[in-house]
Each structure stands twice: as structure tokens, then as C-alpha cells.
Recover the amino acids of this structure.
């Protein structure tokens, strides 16, 4: 399953709930990948201060992806670029993908959930 | 063909109605629904407290009737539901809330049920994602 996470971390529970699908699948040992797309790439930004919004830090949960066996973590290169984020400066390691690579990624999975 | 259907939209959103009509068509065409899974704001599609105006389709009530009549496995994500105030008797009691709004045959359970359904089905079809 491919999970496409498109919401900023401050936009409500959507980002956390997309991540929870990945973590639950990882716990079952299922082959899955997560792609951060559009505002979803803001989840990867360093130096977030969620406490100011009375929110928990999502980054700690994102770092659990590895522990849950989800190693395929991708970010849309274009989404990063237009938001002024550089792939090398992210809080969580994610492989940047160009448009053609994203198409190939979608084709590789039988199930895709976009949240 | 076996379908798993995921619903991420509340009863008042068009995606919930489309999911319901799709699910009805799946059965009408002789296919099977492995499980319906309600997540994110989709948990509101399961709420018994939704009231539509009389001249509008009551999609929440139609979901309930459909699931009951077709005897479908309809799972509501427990974490998403608690956060949004969709509780069965047990959870209302556990958290000391005054009312339950998730009657049978809806079942509260975890995200593992989504993955299990996706594995068991030939197709996973989602409604109401972004």
C-alpha cells in the first residue's frame, strides 16, 4: 500500500492519521511506502514548534516509521521546492522524487490511500 | 470480485453518498464487500445523531439500513471516532460521556482492520480523501 500524505502538520489530525495507517501496516509487516506531497512536505520540516499551537510534535512519530519497518519514505521534489524546503535539511529522511518517479511509484502499488 | 471500501467523509459530504451508492452497486452486480472501513471524518457517516432536513437524503440513516440489511462488516476506526465524539455504549461508559451514538451493527476497531481488508480484497476503493 502507498500512503500519500498531503496535509500540513498544523492542518488538523489528517497528517497524524495518514501516518497512523503507515505505522499500523508496518506493524503487520506489510510492504508499504509513504509519499509526502503538496503541504504534506511541511511535516518533514526541521525546527517546528507545535507546542505554540498546543499540538504534539509529529516528527517523533515520523521517526518511528523506520522502527515499524517502513523504509520507503518519499517526498515530492516539486512540493519541497515551491515551499522553500531543501531535501538535505529535513527532520526526517525522505527520498525526493520528480514527477516521473512519482508516477512510477503510483504504478508500483496495488493500493493507494491519499489523505 | 471482492471489494474493501474506505470512507473518509462525513454523511453530509458528497463523497459519503458516492461511497454508499458504489457499495450498493457492488452488491447489486453480484460482487462481494469484504469490509467497509470508516476513518478520519468518515466516522461521522456512522453517527446515529445525524439529522438531515426532511427534503434531503438522510445518508447516515441509509448507511445504517444498508449495512444492516446486507449484513456487512462495517468497522469504524476507534481512535478517529473517539476524537470526533462517535462512541458506542462501551466507550461512552468508559469515558463517562452522556450518550452513545454508534449503534450496532457498526463496530469500533483499529487500523489493522483496514489493512486486513485491503489484503483480503481484490480492490480497495477509497472515498473522500484529499
Amino acid at each position: 500500500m502507498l500512503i500519500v500524505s498531503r496535509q500540513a502538520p498544523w492542518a488538523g489530525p489528517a497528517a497524524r492519521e495518514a501516518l497512523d495507517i503507515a505505522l499500523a501496516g508496518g506493524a503487520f509487516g506489510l510492504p508499504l511506502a509513504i509519499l509526502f506531497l503538496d503541504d504534506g512536505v511541511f511535516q518533514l520540516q526541521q525546527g517546528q514548534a507545535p507546542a505554540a499551537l498546543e499540538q504534539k510534535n509529529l516528527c517523533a512519530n515520523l521517526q518511528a516509521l523506520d522502527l515499524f519497518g517502513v523504509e520507503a519514505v518519499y517526498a515530492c521534489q516539486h512540493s519541497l521546492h515551491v515551499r522553500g524546503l531543501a531535501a538535505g535539511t529535513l527532520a526526517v529522511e525522505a527520498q525526493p522524487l520528480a514527477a516521473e518517479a512519482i508516477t512510477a511509484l503510483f504504478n508500483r502499488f496495488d493500493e493507494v490511500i491519499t489523505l | 470480485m471482492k471489494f474493501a471500501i474506505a470512507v473518509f467523509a462525513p454523511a453530509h459530504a458528497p463523497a459519503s453518498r458516492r461511497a454508499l451508492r458504489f457499495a450498493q452497486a457492488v452488491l447489486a452486480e453480484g460482487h462481494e464487500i469484504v469490509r467497509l472501513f470508516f476513518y478520519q471524518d468518515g466516522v461521522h457517516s456512522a453517527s446515529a445523531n445525524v439529522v438531515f432536513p426532511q427534503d434531503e437524503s438522510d445518508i447516515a440513516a441509509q448507511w445504517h439500513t444498508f449495512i444492516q440489511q446486507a449484513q456487512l462488516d462495517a468497522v469504524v476506526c476507534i481512535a478517529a471516532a473517539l476524537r470526533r465524539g462517535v462512541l458506542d455504549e462501551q466507550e461512552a461508559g468508559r469515558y463517562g460521556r452522556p450518550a452513545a451514538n454508534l449503534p450496532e451493527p457498526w463496530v469500533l476497531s483499529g487500523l489493522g482492520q483496514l489493512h486486513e481488508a485491503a489484503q483480503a480484497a481484490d480492490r480497495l476503493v477509497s472515498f473522500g480523501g484529499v
Observations:
- Chain A touches chain B at residues 1, 6-7, 13-14, 17, 20-21, 24-25, 27-28, 30, 110-111, 113-115 (CB under 8 Å).
- Chain A has four helices and five strands.
- The beta strands of chain A are 2-5, 33-36, 72-76, 95-97, 112-114.
- The longest strand of chain A covers residues 72-76.
